[in-house]
Amino acid sequence: MSSINGSSINGSVRKDRGKPIPQPKETFLLGNVPDLDPKVPLRSLIKLAKVHGPIYQLRVPGQVMVIVSSQEMIHAVCDEAKFEKVVAGPLEHVRDFAGDSLFTAFNHEPNWALAHRILVPAFRPMAIRQMQPMMMDVLAQMVMYWEHHTGQPFEPAEQFTRLTFDTIGLTAFKYRFNSFNRENPHDFLTAMTKLLGDAYTRSRRPGVVNKLMYREEAEYKSNIALLHRTCDEIVAARRKSPDPEAGDLLNRMINDKDPETGARLPDDNIRYQMVTFLIAGHETASGTLAFTVYYLLKNPAIMCKAREEADAAVKDAGGNLAAINPTKLPYLDAVLKEALRLQTTATFWTRAPKEDVELPGGYFLKKGQPIGVVPHCLHRDPKAWGPDAEVFRPERWLEGTVFPPDSWKPFGNGARACIGQLFAMQEGLLALAVVLHRFDLDFADKGYDLKIKMGITIQPDGFRMVAKPRQGRNQSLIGELLTSGGTSASAAPAVARAALVNGTGAPASEAKDKLVFLYGSNSATCETLASELASEGVQRGYGTTAAALDTFAKDGKLPTEERVVICTPSYEGLPPGNGRLFVEAITKQQDKTALKGVRYAVFGAGHHDWPRTFHKVPKLIDSRLEELGAQRFLPLSLADAGGDIVDDIETFKSKLWEALGGSNSAATQPLSVQVVPSSVNPTAALLSAGVEELGTVVSQATLVEAEADRRKKVHTTIRLAEGCPYRAGDYLAVLPKNPPATVSRALVRLGLKPDSVLTLQSGAACPHLPRDTPVRAGDLLESYIELGQQVSKRTLTELAAHCKGEDAKVAQALADENNDEIVSRRLSLLDVLEKIPEHKHDLGFFLESLHKMKIRQYSISSTPLADPSLVTLTYDIHSSPSDPAHGLGAASNYLSSLVAGQSLRCDIKSSVNFHLPTDPATPVVLFAAGTGLAPFMGFAAERAMLKSGGRQVGATILYYGCRDRTDMMHAEQLLTWASHGSLDLRPVFSRAKSVELPAPVKVIDAKYVQDRVWAEREELRALYKAGAMFYTCASGSRMALDLKKTLIKIIMEAKGCSEEEAGEKMDSLAQERYRTDVMLGALALASTLVWAALAQNVTTSTLRVTFDRPDYARYVNPTSAGLSIELDRFPDWAGNLSHPNEYTHALLDNLKQRTGAAVTIRVGGGTQDRTVITPSVEVYEDVFPAVPANYTSTKQLFPEANYVAVGKEFYLTSGNFPSGTQFIWGVDLLKNNVSEAKAQVQAIQDAFQDSRLSHVHLQSLEFGNEPDSWANNGRPANWTLLQYADQ
Fold it and tell me: Lowest mean pLDDT: which of 505-519, 550-564, 668-682, 1041-1055?
């Protein structure tokens, strides 16, 4: 904090006039001291501004500080006629070594004006341009240092500190500190850094305490003496050997006279100015550069654009780095300004009114009252910067927008603003241009999110990166200078393709064949797969590279000398964050021969719960590469995260290595495991998986107890590691451990004890396992691998080959593709080994077959405004009621087992766009079901705090779906917020009626969230017109899909448009004002079963519906979790269709789109036997060429019918039916008579207790407007209509 910590300034608020200034509640004796974070007070200032608004005051013993944060308020206090700078807080202590310099002089001290008049000419544009050669001198030293230490992780802030410190020393005083030629910083820099930290610390202690700390006081004075002595020696050397041609600041300070008075600067003031320039010239500039690089790494599209500009500028300069023209770097200039906007390194400055004054809003202050300005809040004010104020978007500076006055103030204000603004900007532009032109940059920790450390300024905390020369390891700036007198004129050096993989791969040039594995990934599945493939490739004798698509091929260009394997998912039809540039590039490419000679294969992942965009991106990449001339060496492979994705991945691996040729397979070394004596000292280093921080459990609470058909729901509070900021809506990434019961089972089956010590050798295809290092068996099985991972069919086949007798039969039976037990019960390899207890296990095979332990992400259910160091998680515990000992979810059981005081590995992962609007006055509508309530607890808590703090807060409406009153989590807190008026709570109970809740909460007759939304659609339309934001979070994707259909229906009704047009409008809304955070999982089982029954009338094929999670067994009998129906009859009335399977396609297409079910079709008939996973139109066109090219859906079969989606079922309605009646259609449902059909439906209803089929009525009705197909071919005999009354 600045001048509220130890400041001697006392002002006052006019209590006799104007509005009272908001203030946090005071603590006895301490006032508002507890409200300030002692290590990073900026966090507290931001939090309090959120809660109390653009102006608030803090009271600490002896003083009051008013804080302003909005553009309107700060514009007022920047009026030089009414306000002036105040030197207080840490700056008062900086005066101990910077005296009355430009930075720290009091307003009444004459040396400020004297120095200002003498030195201002040195910072005019032409003078700054003349400093460029010296700036490039130091920058070249940094470039060579990076080239000589290529690939070694380093902290950008530390490197940029050396750069900026040496640059100001050389340009201002022609003095070389040579920071890049020494291992440790120069003594001057070390002393100055310590003094700046001391100034900050001393400002927070009473003066008498500082003087009593004798050792610290002595060190403080010694460091001051070192600074002054160094400066005096530099001045003495210049006076002894004058340099009239230097034209630097030192000459001006020694020789120039004040144009008004003729006076020169006193010697002590020259010393103070030198210290000031060395402080200001490096401290803020180095932090700004570090923040800028961070934002570039987080935004690869922006980095790509910035690099293109840097390459062009170097090319225009003829390759001469010293001749780069900064004025030709407008985009880099915007990048630098945008980084300065979001992370202003000078975090706080103080003003005071010269006379009594009124601030906007009617707040009166007395003369001299200190006013703290928080640029961080100013630069994120949505009224000044728009709704994307929190977003790093450099383009805002190039769009011609005129921002309100005083909305960008990173350099202070008025006459006392930083004199070196132009110097800092030119230095930053040149550094960024050269770095981007010469190096490929990447995070050392791929999962790093920005953390802040604070002294007198702020810098990134824990941010490390890796810089690799773009021209390969032989790139050398000094070599280029020696051979050509200048650097290469190439605008874009070729990217080295022979990267190492996991530190174990050989350069591709040393291998016979070369493979490149490129990935796009948000959740690390495809990234992990690419890394595993690259590692396996090395063991098979290949040279391999693994990289993100945008890192390796953001321009859409792929190598021709290597085979390329691309692994990527779709995210609601969009590419992953690190693959967007690549997809955009190949989409825009017009040259059909652009990728001629490229050999490629594509692996795609997706989830069937998003049928409209299922596998959209991998299919696009696969087809687009072929269109651009590339040659596919392996057909497109697809995996479903909602099905047996483990088997899909293993199958793809097998096909890939087979397609690449088996000659290299002999190079693979199996994992060898040796049990060693327990006397060996074991090592149990836990794999971090990108989660480096340790949190501590504070408390555990049970929200809902487990019942036969209800999961236990838990609320866990965790204290974060220091420096882990988060926002409501973010995730907590947790690295779990396998449940103790599962670990014990594994130890028993493998014949090990927890303290057995193992050493692992070879097996390089398992980089996540510790090799050649003793490790406890208990640690290995607990933390390194996923014991509960579903076993793949490939692993089962390999296991069967090692088994004998009955054991081999059991394993082979499970591996059979027609056996659904693996998927339906989610059996692990451990489960299978327990089924064959006589089999002598191979420990190496067991470990090699399991994946490494992966992180899980949980939505945070708290707000940092309550306590930025605490997060809460609200989740349910995964287990299988039919087999609780075996069906344990690793993460949920691990989390819930922790007790207060225990540590866990966790870290914050920022949500991309699931945050509250920047302006709290914006209404928000929240849709939640189950534990999808979690992030909205944080949203509601934050808006309740803002409201109580005096902010204008828009309506907060929460639709919350649960089964009954017992199932309602956080009920007391929700009802309290509702009673206070901060939350409009709208609960919906699916299994209870007539639930009474205290006013003002109302419960209406609606079963699901989407039902209440439909009933209250007029109010929602009004909220939409009022600018509301909409958010959905659900523990099952079903609610999100049904809600989306309901919203589309609302749009259709309001606009009078078609479903397709309404869908497009909904897609547009989703991009702008509708945010989803859906935990994929639960299927609409009623629809699945009904549609499967309807399919009885389709050809001689088999329709198999599988459920991808074991806990679904509680809805149906465990033996029927994989439902298989023989389809032995084809209706005569459909005989006009061009292909007998077309009706199958239509049914399954709707089954897919309306329910998100995982479907496997087996088509009978000789050599045409094949399996199609998760069918789609594209797949059908490959399998069944006879399908019409214009085939879309069942609507072609029933063109006269109106299709609507209501709740969890798909209904067909006709105008002749009674108003409001809902129907599911069927033809000869299962059997040819109604009684048997009714019995079958009743059996389905009994098996599925959570069905909407609470009452079933069957009756024969005449169909008023029969489909054309019926009119042409006759109505089928004995057709039956099922009416499902929702009572």
Answer: 668-682
To the query of whether residue 284 is one of the catalytic residues in this protein, the response is yes
Which of 78, 231, 377, 418 does the annotation list as catalytic? 418
Give the span between the Cα atoms of 932 and 1082, in whole angstroms: 13
Looking only at the bridges linking them, the beta strands covering 870-876 and 713-719 are: antiparallel
Reference 102, options 86, 113, 89; nearest CA is 113
What residues contact residue 431 under an 8 Å CB cut-off, 6+ apart?
139, 142, 160, 163, 289
Which has the minimum average pLDDT: 669-673, 791-795, 1277-1281? 1277-1281
1057 is catalytic: no
Catalytic residue among 193, 284, 545, 1088: 284
The gap from C-alpha 831 to its chain's centroid, in whole angstroms, comes to: 35
Let me know the angle formed at the C-alpha of 1278 by 1273 and 1283, rounded to the nearest 5 degrees.
110
735-748 burial, b at 16+ Cβ within 10 Å, e below that, comes to bbbbbeebbebbbe
Q: Can you say how many angstroms the Cα of residue 732 is from the centroid of all Cα atoms in its chain?
A: 11
839 φ, ψ to 5°?
A: -70, 130
CB-side neighbour CA atoms (13 Å) of 137: 18
- 170: part of which helix (H) or strand (E)? helix 156-173
Closest by CA position to 520, among listed 564, 579, 572: 579
Does position 283 have pLDDT exceeding 50, yes or no?
Answer: yes
Average pLDDT over residues 434-445: 91
Please tell me the predicted confidence (pLDDT) of residue 1137.
28
Res 172: pLDDT: 92
Q: Is it true that the peptide bond before 1000 is cis, omega within 30 degrees of 0?
A: yes
Q: In whole numbers, what is the pLDDT of the chain averaged over residues?
A: 76
- Cα dihedral 1160, 1166, 1167, 1170, rounded to 10, equals 0
Position 1107: which residue type? F
Q: Are 1148 and 1210 spatial neighbours (Cβ–Cβ below 8 Å)? A: no
Cα atoms found within 13 Å of the Cα of residue 1245, Cβ hemisphere only? 13
SS3 814: helix
* Gap between the Cα atoms of 278 and 456, Å rounded: 14
| pLDDT recorded at residue 344 | 95
Of 330, 343, 414, 327, the C-alpha closest to 376 is 343
- Supply the pLDDT for residue 765: 57
Of 1183 and 29, which is predicted with more confidence?
A: 29
**Cβ neighbours of residue 1193 under 8 Å, at least 6 residues apart?**
1146, 1149, 1150, 1153
Residue among 160, 411, 463, 1198 flagged as catalytic: 411
* Separation of alpha carbons 440 and 124, rounded Å: 34
Measured CA to CA, the distance from residue 887 to residue 672 in angstroms comes to 29
